[in-house]
């Protein structure tokens, strides 16, 4: 989207100068009708710099008036600088002021204040020019906004081609609509325009300038206009030295300097205008690009008239283990009072500073593979919806979003459901329940009362601070987060153990049978098998056994390059045609998985790409090279979780084939056994 | 959430441990094209690779992962002497009045290349510019060799002696504002930096035309009339400089663009350049992809 020209102006109101940034000066001019003075800097300024200048001016302001005496004494110098930068018009003003000493004293003082304020602005601007390496060209000057506006209007009135400016009331209505549509969103300017275009409400006033509506909404305090990449305000609030290195941050994904890339920008004309490389796929977030932050969208009321928890839980038909966990989570998100967030709701908070109160609002649902996590979240979503709030379910993969959609719609027929993923058609629709892929979270800001994060430890969350930031940001300050995982990262496990993170464990599958415990089988590694073109006898026997009992086989290998060759080897040695291999680079992956689901493929050779998500009723799992580096405890547990998913065949077999016993394998076995132990102790298993 | 404190802490540890270990072992960089951590080719395999990697700096091939490197459909054998296509070309047979001498492109415009160009041009991933720019060195080297043979210039002489200027296809100011940069200019800058051929900003685009990719062949041709003009000042300066040289042949100018489809853009730019001076110029087009 085209970058935007920003303007700054200073305004005198009850003897107090403030500097403001605008994208539509006309709107500001009519908005501040009662201001004593409005002076607009004539040249447009790159947005990021304009914001910085306004911040500096306003930060100085307080000090300035305290030290008024000093200021007056150095006034001469300031004004000189001002004269230097203001160009011809400014100098003329200045000289006229000198000459016109005969005017009333009051008038003179006022004008002197003007000059002082302008001088300071000019000084800050020239400072910014030096420090921020920004070149504007010559001819900087200010003009009185209202005069200019009047002149402009006159000119337009005179010429027939002039477009009539939107009437004030219509503009106000448009601003209100825009603010409502932007609620809970964090959008770049282009996205905001698309959103306004898409919403039916704004379509009613199509001729209105969208920027004008947005500017008015921001003046009314309904939305915030920010530069998408800007200095982290938190550092200042935390009292860090102001002159410390100007650390920029992408306000949308939270990335710091190392993710930013500076290039000459043809839009704002700067030599080094930073953009964020981390969230580039969602549109370019840039220093001179506008980011619009809507007001918090969360609306849930804590005083609920809903039926008691037990009663609400009952109709979801959960297993005892599921019900217990869901009840704990329900209790957590319905706690009567909770400490108000200690921070302000400032959006640009830096990720690490936010964490102290964050764990008070998070709940970890640690549920084994096949426990029925989705069903457990239904009562939670219901609780939020009953209180009039909004819920989000975020999952890493698009196919999960698509699969979840009908289930959610069926469970909550009277609420609106929006699905968001790359290329989704419901991009700009508001809904009570939002189903989204994780990247879509970047476009939200304090929007949801309940954020449910599925597969927290999987790609792309894993090692991706941007998505963690986005997940945090999308949750309202008074909202709650539910983290779902079968294999939570070690840090979260530790926190849960220490009692610093509320959590509930679901140690048993929904069918109430124990998890299959992996069997360790000593075999040569895959490379050797492929070289010799033969399978070790014990592995072959185990596979034939599985085939005989009618199971389908998952065969996991470490490398993509081994997939095809292994599939061929299995085909010849087992004398079976229905063998296929697939990997992340296979264009026919979706198709092959479908055929595997349908039973047309008996053995599927694959990599960790299929460690989650694919459920086959009667399946056995063979993990080759289980001692390899790419298979850690979590992925071994996930892969093992592909077996015994259905209640018809709960005892599938899992075999770790490896040359060596590694810590990961032992930990995975330990993990699974422990879950079974807990389930047995709690009496969750189906009585035989 | 609190988990994230630890998360970040661990990130830090991993980061620093990574840098320390990185000093000891072979570095595992992220591939600039696909963004994944993947191994680059080993030294042995690199040297075993055929041209064009020979004309690129070794750091180029080393910084890309092997998958991305394998995905690049280099144009090795030029079939059409004019437009540099890898196949026989009906366009050039049809055309009679080319204002440029020939075009050479680095790669075929395959699907992965289309995606790569989209990442750079439309998504705005400017970090790709150095790599795409460097890829142009391969066709430039070929072109230079061909030309120096024809001109009878010693093969080893610097490229700046053979090429008098390098310029690029301009974009309209609207497009520049929207995109933030001119993709062809950035490529030209990269080539100029690598070869020391002087970069001249010779052209401007007069009006804003619709995106080329939505138009048919004939529509493109029609549209191109008087779309470009010469920057009089830069042109004058360039000609002055050129005429001051001793050997006063026709100036040889390299015209850089990202993609050559029908050649109408290159043709229009070349025409505009030719009009600027009474004596003819030799304009050679250097494009990143040939579709």
Question: Can you tell me about this structure?
Answer:
Chain A: Residues 354-506 form the Helicase ATP-binding domain. Chain A: This is Competence protein ComFA. Chain A: GO terms for molecular function: 3'-5' DNA helicase activity; ATP binding; DNA binding. Chain A: Keywords: ATP-binding, DNA-binding, Nucleotide-binding. Chain A: InterPro entries: DEAD/DEAH_box_helicase_dom, Helicase_ATP-bd, Helicase_C-like, P-loop_NTPase. Chain B: It comes from Paenibacillus algorifonticola. The complex is a heterodimer of chains A (688) and B (291). Chain A starts with a strand and ends in a 6-residue tail after the last helix. Chain A is built from 23 helices and 25 strands. In chain A, strand 17 (448-453), helix 16 (465-474) and strand 18 form a beta-alpha-beta unit. Chain A has a 7-stranded parallel beta sheet. A 6-stranded parallel beta sheet of chain A has the order 20-25-24-21-23-22, with helices on both faces. Helix content of chain A is 41%, strand content 18%. Chain A has 4 domains: 5-158, no CATH class; 168-235 and 246-294, no CATH class; 313-339 and 349-506, Rossmann fold (3-Layer(aba) Sandwich), CATH 3.40.50; 519-682, P-loop containing nucleotide triphosphate hydrolases (Rossmann fold), CATH 3.40.50.300. Chain A is elongated and about 95 Å long. With 688 residues, chain A is an alpha/beta fold. By secondary structure, chain B is an alpha/beta fold. Chain B has helices at 2-24, 43-48, 58-63, 66-71, 90-94, 111-121, 129-135, 137-151, 159-162, 173-179, 183-195, 217-223, 232-244, 264-275, and strands at residues 102-108, 165-168, 203-205, 228-230, 252-260, 282-290. The longest helix of chain B is centred in the first third of the chain and has 23 residues, at 2-24. In chain B, the strands form 2 sheets. Chain B has a 4-stranded parallel beta sheet, sandwiched between helices. The model of chain B is unreliable at 18-27 (pLDDT under 50). Chain B has 2 domains: 28-71, no CATH class; 90-290, Rossmann fold (3-Layer(aba) Sandwich). The termini of chain B are far apart. In chain B, helix 7 (129-135) crosses helix 11 (183-195). Helices cover 46% and strands 12% of the residues of chain B. Chain B is built from 14 helices and 6 strands. Classes of the chains: A alpha/beta (688), B alpha/beta (291). Chains A and B meet through helix 13, helix 16 and helix 17 of A and helix 1 and helix 10 of B.
């Amino acid at each position: 989207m085209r970058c935007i020209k920003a303007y700054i102006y200073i305004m005198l109101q009850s003897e107090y100068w403030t500097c403001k940034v605008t994208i539509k000066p006309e709107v500001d001019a009519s908005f501040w009708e009662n201001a004593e003075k409005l002076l607009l800097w004539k040249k447009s300024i790159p947005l990021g710099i304009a914001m910085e200048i306004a911040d500096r001016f306003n930060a100085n302001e307080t000090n300035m008036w305290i030290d008024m005496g000093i200021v007056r004494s150095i006034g001469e110098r300031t004004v000189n600088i001002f004269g230097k930068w203001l160009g011809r018009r400014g100098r003329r003003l200045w000289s006229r002021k000198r000459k016109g000493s005969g005017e009333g004293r009051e008038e003179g003082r006022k004008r002197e204040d003007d000059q002082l304020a302008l001088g300071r602005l000019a000084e800050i601007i020239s400072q910014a020019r030096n420090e921020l390496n920004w070149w504007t060209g010559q001819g900087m000057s200010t003009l009185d906004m209202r005069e200019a506006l009047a002149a402009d209007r006159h000119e337009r009135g005179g010429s027939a081609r002039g477009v009539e400016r939107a009437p004030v009331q219509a503009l106000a209505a448009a601003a209100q609509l825009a603010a409502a549509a932007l609620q809970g969103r964090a959008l770049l300017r282009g996205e905001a325009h698309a959103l306004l275009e898409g919403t039916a409400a704004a379509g009613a006033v199509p001729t209105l300038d969208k920027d004008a509506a947005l500017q008015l909404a921001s003046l009314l305090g309904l939305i915030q206009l920010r530069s998408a990449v800007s200095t982290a305000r938190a550092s200042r609030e935390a009292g860090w030295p102001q002159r410390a290195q100007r650390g920029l941050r992408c306000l949308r994904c939270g990335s710091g300097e190392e993710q930013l890339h500076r290039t000459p920008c043809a839009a704002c004309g700067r030599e080094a205008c930073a953009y964020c490389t981390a969230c580039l796929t969602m549109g370019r977030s840039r220093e001179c690009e506008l980011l619009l932050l809507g007001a918090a969208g969360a609306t849930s009321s804590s005083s609920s008239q809903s039926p008691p928890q037990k009663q609400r839980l009952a109709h979801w038909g959960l297993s005892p283990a599921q019900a217990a966990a869901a009840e704990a989570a329900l209790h957590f998100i319905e706690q009567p009072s909770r400490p108000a967030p200690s921070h302000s709701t400032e959006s640009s908070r830096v990720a690490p500073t936010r964490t102290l109160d964050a764990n008070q609002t998070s709940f970890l649902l640690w549920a084994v593979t096949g426990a029925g996590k989705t069903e457990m979240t239904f009562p939670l979503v219901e609780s939020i919806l009953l209180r009039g709030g909004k819920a989000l379910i975020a999952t890493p993969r698009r196919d999960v979003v698509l699969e979840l959609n009908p289930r959610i719609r069926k469970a909550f027929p009277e609420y609106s459901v929006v699905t968001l993923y790359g290329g989704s058609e419901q991009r700009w629709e508001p809904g009570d329940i939002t189903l989204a892929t994780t990247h879509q979270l970047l476009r939200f800001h304090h929007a949801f009362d309940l954020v449910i994060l599925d597969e927290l430890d999987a790609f792309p969350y894993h090692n991706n601070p941007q998505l963690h930031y986005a997940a945090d940001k999308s949750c309202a300050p008074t909202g709650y987060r539910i983290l779902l995982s079968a294999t939570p990262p070690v840090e979260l496990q530790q926190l849960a153990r220490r009692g610093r993170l509320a959590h509930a464990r679901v140690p048993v599958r929904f069918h109430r049978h124990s998890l299959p415990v992996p069997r360790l089988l000593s075999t040569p590694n895959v490379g050797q098998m492929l070289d010799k073109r033969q399978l070790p006898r014990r592995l072959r026997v185990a596979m034939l056994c599985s085939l005989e009992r009618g199971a389908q086989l998952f065969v996991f290998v470490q490398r993509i390059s081994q997939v095809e060759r292994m599939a061929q080897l299995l085909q010849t040695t087992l004398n079976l045609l229905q063998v296929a291999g697939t990997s992340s680079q296979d264009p026919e992956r979706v198709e092959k998985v479908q055929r595997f689901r349908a039973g047309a493929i008996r053995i599927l050779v694959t990599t960790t790409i299929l460690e989650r998500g694919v459920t086959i009723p009667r399946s056995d799992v063979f993990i080759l090279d289980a001692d390899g580096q790419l298979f850690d405890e979590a992925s071994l547990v996930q892969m093992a979780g592909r077996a015994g998913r259905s209640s018809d065949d709960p005892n599938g077999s899992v075999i770790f084939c490896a040359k060596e016993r590694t810590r990961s394998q032992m930990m995975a076995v330990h993990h699974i056994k422990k879950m079974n132990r807990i389930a047995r102790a709690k009496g969750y298993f189906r009585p035989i | 959430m609190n988990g994230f404190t630890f998360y970040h802490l661990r990130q830090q540890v991993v980061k620093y441990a990574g840098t320390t270990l990185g000093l000891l072992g072979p570095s595992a960089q992220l591939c600039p094209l696909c963004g994944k951590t993947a191994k680059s080719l080993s030294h042995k395999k690199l040297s075993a690779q055929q041209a064009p990697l020979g004309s690129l700096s070794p750091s180029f091939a080393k910084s890309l992962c092997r998958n991305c490197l394998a995905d690049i459909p280099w144009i090795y054998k030029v079939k059409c002497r004019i437009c540099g296509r890898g196949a026989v070309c009906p366009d050039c047979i049809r055309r009679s009045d080319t204002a440029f001498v020939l075009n050479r492109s680095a790669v075929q415009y395959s699907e992965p290349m289309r995606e790569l160009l989209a990442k750079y041009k439309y998504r705005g991933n400017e970090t790709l510019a150095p790599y795409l720019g460097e890829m142009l060195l391969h066709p430039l080297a070929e072109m230079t060799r061909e030309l120096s043979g024809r001109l009878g210039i010693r093969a080893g002489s610097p490229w700046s002696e053979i090429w008098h200027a390098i310029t690029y296809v301009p974009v309209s100011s609207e497009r520049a504002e929207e995109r933030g940069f001119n993709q062809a200019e950035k490529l030209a800058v990269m080539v100029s930096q690598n070869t020391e051929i002087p970069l001249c900003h010779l052209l401007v685009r007069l009006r804003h035309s619709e995106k080329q990719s939505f138009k048919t062949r004939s529509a493109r041709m029609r549209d191109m009339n008087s779309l470009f003009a010469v920057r009089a000042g830069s042109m004058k300066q360039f000609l002055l400089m050129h005429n001051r040289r001793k050997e006063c042949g026709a100036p040889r100018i390299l015209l850089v663009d990202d993609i050559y489809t029908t050649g109408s853009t290159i043709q229009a730019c070349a025409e505009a350049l030719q009009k600027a001076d009474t004596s003819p110029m030799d304009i050679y087009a250097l494009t990143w992809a040939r579709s």
